[in-house]
C-alpha cells in the first residue's frame, strides 16, 4: 500500500513556527507539480517556462498550505471556530480543514462576489455562511473586529501562520527546479501569496545562498490598488479571486516587489480570458480566471520584449478551473445535438 503524502507541517516543520505540541493537521496539501510548458513557452520563445499548479491542493487552491498551519495553531491555542472573510477560496479551504478537525467554520462572503463552485464547496463542508451586502474589503473589516473573541481564530491572510504555510510553495519550486527561477509571475489580490513566496525565497537565500527571483505580480485593471497606489472602492474584474480593493498584505506585497527588483502591473479582463483559454487548450491545465492573470502578465512582458528566452520562469496557477465553472463556458457556444450516425462522427473527425 502506497504511503500517504506528508502535509506541509510534517515536511517543513524545521522551517515553520511549530513545536511537538502543534497538531500535525493535514489533508495532504502541498507537493503540487511544477509542469514544464509544452506549447505556450515555445510559442513565446521561452525555453524554460514552468507552471506551479496549485489547483491540485485538496480544496483546489493554494490556500490549503496556509490553512493547514493556521488550523493547527488555532487548535493548539484552544480555538473551536475558524472565522474568515472570503472571495471564495479561503472559505472553501477553511471549511475543509474545519471539517477535518471537528471544528466549526464561519465564513463571510460578499453578495454576488463568489464563484458558484467555491460557495458550493463551503456549503458541502458544512460551513456557516453569512452573505453581506458590500465588497470583500467590507467583509474582512467585519471579521477582524471578532478576531479577539475567545475560542475564535481568524484565518485570513492577516493571520501570520497563513503566510508561513504558503511560503512552502517556494521551497517546493526550488526542490523541483534544482534552483530558484529567475522570475516568478503570480496573481495578486489580497497580497498574501506574493508576500509568502518572497518570504520563502529569502529564507532559502539566507540558508542556501540562492539568488531569489524577481517577483512579478499581476492585478486586474479594475482591481489594481497596488498599481494605482490607493484603495479601489469598487473593484471590478471577472477574476473574482483577485477582486479586492484594499489588500490586507499591502506592505508585504510592495516589499516583495521592491526587494526582488520585480514589478506589480495590470492585465485586462480580455488578457486574462485569453490566457485562461490558452492554458486549457495548449497546456491541458484547467484553472480559474485569477490563476491566468500571471500568465497574461507574462505574455504582456514577452510582447514588450522584457524577458530573455533562456531564463527559468515560473507562473503560479493558484486555483482549479472547476472553482468557477461559469468562466469555462463564458463566450463559448455549446454544440447542438446531432444524429447518432457513423457518417456524422466521420465528418467530425475528418
Structure, explained:
The protein is of the alpha/beta class and about 350 residues long. The chain has two domains: about 10-60 and about 160-330, Rossmann fold (3-Layer(aba) Sandwich), CATH 3.40.50; about 65-160, Rossmann fold (3-Layer(aba) Sandwich). The chain contains 15 helices and ten strands. The strands form two sheets. The chain has a six-stranded mixed sheet, sandwiched between helices. A four-stranded parallel sheet has the order 5-4-3-6. Helix 9 links the parallel strand 7 (about 185) and strand 8.
Distance between the termini: 45 Å
Whole-number average pLDDT? 93
Largest sheet report:
6 strands, mixed
How many distinct folded domains? 2
Radius of gyration: 20 Å
In helices, the fraction of residues equals 40-55%
What is the CATH C level class of the largest domain, in words? Alpha Beta
Based on the coordinates given, report the CATH architecture of the largest domain.
Answer: 3-Layer(aba) Sandwich
As laid out across the biggest beta sheet, the strand order is: 1-2-10-7-8-9
DSSP E strands, number: 10
Instruction: Provide the low-confidence segments as ranges.
Output: none
Strand content: 5-15%
Query: What pattern of helices and strands is seen along the backbone?
Result: HEHEHEHEHEHEHHEHEHHEHHEHH
The CATH topology of the largest domain: Rossmann fold
Shape: globular
Q: Treating each run of at least 4 consecutive H or I residues as one helix, how many helices?
A: 15
Return the structural class.
alpha/beta
Amino acid at each position: 500500500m502506497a504511503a500517504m503524502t506528508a502535509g506541509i507541517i510534517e515536511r517543513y516543520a524545521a522551517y515553520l513556527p511549530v513545536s511537538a505540541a502543534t497538531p500535525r493537521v493535514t489533508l495532504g496539501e502541498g507537493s503540487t507539480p511544477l509542469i514544464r510548458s509544452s506549447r505556450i513557452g515555445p510559442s513565446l520563445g521561452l525555453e524554460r517556462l514552468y507552471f506551479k499548479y496549485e489547483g491540485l491542493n485538496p480544496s483546489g487552491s493554494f490556500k490549503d498550505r496556509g490553512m493547514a498551519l493556521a488550523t493547527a495553531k488555532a487548535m493548539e491555542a484552544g480555538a473551536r471556530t475558524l472565522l474568515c472573510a472570503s472571495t471564495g477560496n479561503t472559505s472553501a479551504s477553511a471549511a475543509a480543514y474545519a471539517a477535518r478537525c471537528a471544528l466549526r467554520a464561519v465564513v463571510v462572503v460578499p453578495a454576488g462576489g463568489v464563484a458558484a463552485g467555491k460557495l458550493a464547496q463551503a456549503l458541502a463542508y458544512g460551513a456557516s455562511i453569512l452573505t453581506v451586502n458590500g465588497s470583500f474589503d467590507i467583509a474582512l473589516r467585519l471579521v477582524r473586529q471578532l478576531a479577539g473573541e475567545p475560542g475564535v481564530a481568524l484565518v485570513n491572510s492577516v493571520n501570520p501562520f497563513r503566510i508561513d504555510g504558503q511560503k512552502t510553495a517556494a521551497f517546493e519550486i526550488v526542490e523541483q527546479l534544482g534552483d530558484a527561477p529567475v522570475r516568478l509571475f503570480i496573481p495578486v489580490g489580497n497580497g498574501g501569496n506574493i508576500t509568502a513566496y518572497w518570504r520563502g525565497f529569502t529564507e532559502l537565500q539566507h540558508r542556501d545562498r540562492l539568488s531569489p527571483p524577481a517577483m512579478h505580480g499581476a492585478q486586474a485593471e479594475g482591481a489594481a490598488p497596488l498599481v494605482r497606489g490607493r484603495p479601489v472602492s469598487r473593484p471590478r474584474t471577472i477574476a473574482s479571486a483577485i477582486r479586492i480593493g484594499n489588500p490586507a498584505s499591502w506592505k508585504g506585497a510592495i516589499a516583495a516587489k521592491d526587494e526582488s527588483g520585480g514589478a506589480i502591473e495590470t492585465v485586462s479582463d480580455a488578457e486574462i480570458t485569453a490566457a485562461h483559454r490558452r492554458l486549457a487548450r495548449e497546456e491541458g491545465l484547467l484553472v480559474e480566471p485569477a490563476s491566468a492573470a500571471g500568465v497574461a502578465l507574462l505574455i504582456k512582458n514577452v510582447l514588450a520584449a522584457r524577458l530573455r528566452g533562456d531564463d527559468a520562469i515560473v507562473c503560479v496557477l493558484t486555483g482549479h478551473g472547476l472553482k468557477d465553472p461559469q468562466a469555462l463556458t463564458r463566450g463559448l457556444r455549446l454544440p447542438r445535438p446531432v444524429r447518432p450516425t457513423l457518417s456524422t462522427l466521420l465528418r467530425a473527425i475528418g
